[in-house]
Every structure is written in C-alpha cells, then in structure tokens.
Amino acid sequence: MHLDLQREHGLAIRWDDGRESFYPLPLLRKMSPSAEQRLLREEMAENPLTVLPANRPSAEELKAVDAELVGNYAIRIKFSDGHETGIFTWHYLRSIDPEAPETTEAEEL
C-alpha cells in the first residue's frame, strides 16, 4: 500500500490490490471514526436540525497538519481545527471510499 497525504486536499491511497482511492479532507474530517464524531453523525441522522460545533473550519480552510501510522493497521490524521482523535483503519477507509463501486447484498454474500 502507498499513502500520499496532500495536506491541503486529502489522502490518496494505492491499495495492494491496485485500487486507487482519494479521500478529500472534508470527508475524512466528517467521517472521523472518533467517538465524538460518530455521536454527531448519529445525532444528525436522527435530527437534521442538529447544531454543528462552532469551531468547524470551512472546506477551504481545513488542512491536515500531520499524520502518523498506528501499528500496521491504521492512520491518525491531525486536522487544522485541532481534531486528532480519529484512528482510520484500512478496513474503515475502504468502507468509506467515495469512489468505491456500489455493491448489492448478493455481491457481498
């Protein structure tokens, strides 16, 4: 696997199976697997009028300040808004790939 963190744009991954994925920074921030962000997504799913935190930067302002590998199974990205608690496993990143082809239940079985 090859990782390329583009601090102003997103994370590009070339997977071992040859698939290439690109995750824009706003998507990664929104889909962070941190407990705080998961709770916010659940609240928003239940109530579309949920108030978002005031300190969220716009998509143009959001940057990846740093990143570190977590063992051989994940990456932690530190964002310019101070968020750094989400650990993105390789499995989770594959599951949120914005360019992944849609699969049906029959294909998954």
CATH architecture: 2-Layer Sandwich
- Mean pLDDT over the residues: 86
Largest sheet features = 3 strands, antiparallel
Poorly predicted segments: 104-109
The helix content, as a percent range, equals 25-40%
Gap between N and C termini? 26 Å
- Looking at the structure, the CATH topology is NE0471 N-terminal domain-like
Strand arrangement, major sheet:
1-2-3
Secondary-structure element order, N to C = EEEHHEEEHH
Count of individual helical segments: 4
Instruction: Label the overall shape.
Output: globular
**Radius of gyration, whole Å:** 15 Å
Q: Report the structural category.
A: alpha+beta
Amount of beta strand:
25-35%
Number of strands: 6
What is the CATH class? Answer: Alpha Beta
Q: What is the count of distinct domains?
A: 1
Structural summary, described in words:
The protein has 109 residues and is of the alpha+beta class. The protein has one domain (2-100): NE0471 N-terminal domain-like, CATH 3.30.2020.30. 26% of the residues lie in helices and 28% in strands. It has helices at 25-30, 35-46, 90-95, 105-108, and strands at 2-6, 10-14, 20-24, 64-70, 74-79, 87-89. The chain is globular and about 40 Å long.
Question: What would a concise description of this structure say?
Answer:
By secondary structure, the chain is of the alpha+beta class. The protein is built from 4 helices and 6 strands; from the N terminus they run E-E-E-H-H-E-E-E-H-H.
